[in-house]
Amino acid sequence: MKTNEGRFFEDYAVGQVIAHAVPRTVGAGERALYHALYPARHALYSADTFAQGCGLAASPLDDLIAFHTVFGKTVPDISLNAVANLGYAEGRFLQPVWPGDTLRSTSEVIGLKQNSNGKTGVVWVRTRGENQRGQAVLDYIRWVMVRKRDADAPAPETVVPELKPALAAEDLVVPAGLDFSTYDFTAAGEPHRGGDYAVGEIIDHVDGVTVEEAEHMMATRLWQNTAKVHFDATNREDGRRLIYGGHVISLARALSFNGLANAQMIAGINAGAHANPCFAGTTVRAWSEVLDKAETTAPGVGALRLRLVATGADHALGELRGEDGKYRPGILLDLDYWALLPV
Amino acid sequence: MKTNEGRFFEDYAVGQVIAHAVPRTVGAGERALYHALYPARHALYSADTFAQGCGLAASPLDDLIAFHTVFGKTVPDISLNAVANLGYAEGRFLQPVWPGDTLRSTSEVIGLKQNSNGKTGVVWVRTRGENQRGQAVLDYIRWVMVRKRDADAPAPETVVPELKPALAAEDLVVPAGLDFSTYDFTAAGEPHRGGDYAVGEIIDHVDGVTVEEAEHMMATRLWQNTAKVHFDATNREDGRRLIYGGHVISLARALSFNGLANAQMIAGINAGAHANPCFAGTTVRAWSEVLDKAETTAPGVGALRLRLVATGADHALGELRGEDGKYRPGILLDLDYWALLPV
Amino acid sequence: MKTNEGRFFEDYAVGQVIAHAVPRTVGAGERALYHALYPARHALYSADTFAQGCGLAASPLDDLIAFHTVFGKTVPDISLNAVANLGYAEGRFLQPVWPGDTLRSTSEVIGLKQNSNGKTGVVWVRTRGENQRGQAVLDYIRWVMVRKRDADAPAPETVVPELKPALAAEDLVVPAGLDFSTYDFTAAGEPHRGGDYAVGEIIDHVDGVTVEEAEHMMATRLWQNTAKVHFDATNREDGRRLIYGGHVISLARALSFNGLANAQMIAGINAGAHANPCFAGTTVRAWSEVLDKAETTAPGVGALRLRLVATGADHALGELRGEDGKYRPGILLDLDYWALLPV
């Protein structure tokens, strides 16, 4: 067999380190495509002049370009046989990615738990993205449910890693040089500072985007994500292509500009659930809830912990779960993250 | 309210200057996407070598990339609540945009006229796009019909600006260094000089392009144009997404290569009407009429005033209006512009 | 007539040299779009670091970007009135294309043969692509069937060029500096060296991609290929847009990563047939057959001659032709090429 059939549950062992294939140089082209595929407008990622006014050398590539690229490399090794992408935790953005940087990914298996049905198990990995200088740009924990190759294979010792429910503000890494003390609110598009947001506040981002097959496939390929289910209409019985969950993250984050234009940079991902599948033809909208507020040691830079919710059919602000405690059918994404904004 | 609901008619005052948000750095990625989204082939925007042979340092970004980017920034402030985009006048391209340039836009309100129904009014603005060196790259007048927030709000004093029906050739700005005296007609693709075109001549550009939803949305997002009607299939009662008028301009201009390959640069926009809406599935064609000819002081550089017409269902050369004086239903665009070409 | 109606059979003469119009500068944007449009993952074209580890200055643009760009320029002169694209031979990649290079194309007519029906004829051309330094980056022979303008025009003298059935390994040009002696198999994604492949071996590339209209049109426009049939849904009686054959080549080549991840560079194209038309909605898959193996004089660099087959409806490994000797209806592409890989 010359082709990669992916790893099955019994192929993982706690402590195992997997160097994922195909490093990737990203630059001006990926940046333009990101703007074509998502209604992205956060000024720090739109204009060199704005980024320079915030103490950076130039406009970095969008944080989520880094995330999707690092994530995409892990798919052939981690989630090719995954039944479900269960969650994210402790995601930290450690270094901006600049045009011309080359990213590669490594994952360490940090947890394993066979399911009681004996056919599947849960694998926890800590994935780290690095640039060509060997600097970490991103790390995060992800756990997925993976099929066993052989249902009779013995169960491994159960190891369930202890995960922080959320990063503390002190865990966040503010990019070197970032300074919001002379922040240009007019150029950024909204006047709201950190102090203008209240914990518990809910913001309707108003706009909607109806998603097309060509768009989500182009995005997902751009991140070299190879999961068949996104590209091959013959793969599922219903003949539908499942949209990569990260596409919905980027759409929702871009839509959140309207109301959160100053939440410029993503500093951490506390948790995330792809609550329901998304398909082409869906009109995606978003709302956010302010979960927490914090300060940082960088000049003028504060942090906002936000719940970013993407909705499909049913856009009910603040309503996440039904009476049964499960996500409502219209919820596509529930993402808990930290953003940096002017205090 | 944290989100932008846009300005209503009573929010404008003559003399008001609006600095539009989110500057944008454009470069090699936007250039490639422009070529992927439109069948653009004018050699000056295709090849550094050709542009250098015309006296420029390198190939600038397509004029319409500059126009769409500058225009896109104005949407949240000018046309979010617009009922109709009524016209353009006195558009001048003042400076090429180079890869790496950062563009921002400012508009001054130069006219206001409440409609007799009391529910809407017309707003005239002069918009100026600037690069990161503070040089104007483009200015143009646009007028739109905007809803009133409150029908009982008093009408402002009527100010209707006097607009030139067309720019004179002397008003056109030829880019510094442009020299067509050693122009390479073989590389450009056609042998026709300015002298080969006659006023009144009509050129059928022959080719057609059937438009897809993914394409016009990617283009419109690339210019950070946020008008809901282009992206959200639930926005209109008929469930159709309206294609950004600028998408049709770029399509028609690109199609006009076939017959006008040497009309390399757009120097001015005299007038423009989006005569009928365009939707995905339409096969767009184009024809041009030569309206005027002029000389410039730059070596070998002449100017052609052209009417560029995009058609949908009904491609009848030279037939613009029906017996009632209104645009025929198959007309999508009627654009009056000046182009620079070798004499 | 200002517009190009294309050349007809009687417009060609053996020995005629046609300089094709519109040179094109390619770079980071084309590279990103290539990755968005095809599931391309060969590491040498994905990461500067990987290419540098193979002795190159940086990651060149994908070989097929060079091919499509050079090919696209020939369409207005060679195949605008073509009835069929009959074949390729003796294609050699002579020089990598780097971001910022400007490509132009020239074709020499090397054969002519009027068909017995008197209405069409076959034209053979040798096309050469050059960069801005005047270096050849690519040359290949193509032959097409072209309509006559006038069925009564006299037949030219028949000249049928002698074509090599395949390039010999000695005919291949290995890029200056290429060195696979310290090749990083982990980063490349697969462990298989040249020695691991056997002549006659067939590899199923497993993955499938369902093609969308927006994707193939964006790709084909990006190469400035103007053939109407790809863009205009009113052009054919069945209302379908024919997908550019080169789009299927790039799709199949990208899919072949899975099993041929180390077949990094295309060095030669021996033959190629677009066996059946491809339309949007088709799920394209691919398989390869190892036809030959060879060494080169570059350190660690071997060559594999491969048959790359793209399939649509019917993915039967190794089954190319039916009992009638014709391509099976599910075969889209049969491409015979040489690739460079670590020995």
UniProtKB/TrEMBL annotation, chains A, B, C:
It holds the Pfam family MC_hydratase. GO terms for molecular function: lyase activity. Signal peptide: none annotated. This is MaoC family dehydratase.
